[in-house]
């Protein structure tokens, strides 16, 4: 029997003096929470830690500015050229590392810690569990093996990943074990109410106007997805320009669009200010595997939440997606 990857990774971390952590570009709550939570705990164990992502601009989204251990972050240009131990978190494939992808070849050892079903297993050691609700779940298991203390700082970071990747404990991946982990984190005394308020219930006033535009542009296609229904909308470049908001500020837009009862699948096309083209976010309510659909279109994700990027026009993106969704196999209910 092959050794438990949790033991293998815990052993590698225990034996390392310095660890370089990286997460995916455009980091979300789980990417930042798993990276900074692990980073804070490893620093507590006396290790040299740096953390980064290969993004430009290199800026922590305002909603996550409360996270601990932000001083571990270094811009990708200052990231070690050949780290002895590189750990990637919440990152399903090398391209999601952006400008840090070249470190996969120069690092002496690469550990992949992730829960994406689409993970391409690109590490020397892969701690990948698609049944985990969030990458922070795997980080907590690692910390337990390491005998690392669950400090309030570590707990804030891990709770952030847990609450965001479960949609505030609403998604189907929210198991009893998820709530047990949340209980362990809350027991450290963290202010979960302030965390949720910062992430979900705080936005610049301009967000209301942007949401108004998204709602006005929303379209319902009842015959799409084999008759299960599709609802879609867009956040065009003008909406970003008018509101002064960025991609990281509109993560929650899809959660508004997906409320349409008549649609199994929700889609939001967000103009990509850096690359041009569109960032496409998709959600399914459980009957269709949008993870497979998005992986086939060059992206990745989970069964019910996934995305990809496209340089095509919005009309072409939608036509291609309609066709892919029409032929997507329906999951057993
Ligand atoms: Mn995640």
Task: Tell me briefly what this model is.
This protein has 333 residues and is an alpha/beta fold. 36% of the residues lie in helices and 17% in strands. It has two domains: 196 residues, inorganic pyrophosphatase (n-terminal core); 121 residues, Roll (Diaminopimelate Epimerase, Chain A, domain 1), CATH 3.10.310.
Note the topology.
Blueprint: H1 5-15, E1 18-23, H2 29-44, E2 48-53, E3 85-89, H3 103-106, E4 109-114, E5 125-128, H4 135-146, H5 152-165, H6 176-186, H7 192-200, H8 206-217, E6 219-221, E7 230-235, H9 237-243, H10 253-257, E8 265-271, E9 278-284, H11 290-296, E10 300-301, E11 305-310, H12 314-326
Parallel strand pairs: 1-2, 1-3, 3-4, 4-5, 7-8
Antiparallel strand pairs: 6-7, 8-9, 9-11, 10-11
Helix pairs in contact: 1-4, 2-4, 2-5, 4-5, 5-6, 5-7, 8-9
């Amino acid at each position: 029997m092959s050794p438990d990857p949790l033991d293998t990774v815990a052993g590698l971390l225990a034996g390392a003096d310095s660890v370089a952590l990286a997460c995916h570009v455009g980091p979300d709550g789980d990417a930042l929470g798993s990276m900074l939570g692990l980073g804070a705990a490893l620093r507590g164990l006396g290790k040299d830690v740096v953390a980064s992502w290969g993004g430009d601009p290199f800026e922590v989204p305002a909603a996550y500015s409360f996270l601990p251990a932000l001083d571990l972050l270094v811009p990708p240009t200052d990231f070690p050229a050949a780290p002895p131990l590189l750990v990637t978190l919440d990152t399903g494939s090398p391209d999601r590392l952006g400008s840090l992808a070249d470190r996969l070849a120069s690092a002496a050892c690469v550990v992949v810690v992730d829960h994406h079903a689409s993970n391409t297993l690109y590490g020397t050691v892969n701690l990948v569990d698609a049944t985990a609700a969030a990458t922070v779940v795997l980080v907590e298991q690692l910390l337990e093996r390491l005998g690392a203390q669950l400090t309030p700082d570590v707990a804030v970071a891990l709770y952030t990943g847990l609450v965001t990747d479960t949609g505030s404990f609403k998604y189907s991946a929210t198991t009893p074990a998820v709530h047990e982990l949340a209980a362990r984190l809350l027991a450290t005394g963290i202010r979960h109410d302030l965390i949720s308020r910062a992430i979900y219930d705080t936005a610049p006033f301009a967000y209301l106007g942007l949401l108004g535009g998204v709602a006005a542009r929303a379209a319902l296609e009842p015959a799409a997805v084999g008759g299960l229904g599709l609802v879609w909308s867009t956040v065009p470049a003008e909406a970003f320009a008018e509101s002064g908001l960025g991609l990281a500020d509109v993560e929650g837009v899809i959660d508004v669009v997906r409320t349409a009862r008549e649609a199994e699948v929700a889609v939001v096309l967000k103009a990509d200010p850096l690359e041009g083209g569109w960032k496409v976010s998709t959600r399914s309510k459980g009957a269709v595997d949008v993870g497979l659909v998005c992986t086939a279109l060059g992206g990745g994700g989970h069964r019910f939440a996934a995305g990809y990027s496209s340089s095509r026009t919005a009309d072409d993106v939608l036509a291609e997606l309609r066709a892919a969704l029409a032929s997507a196999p329906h999951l057993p209910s």
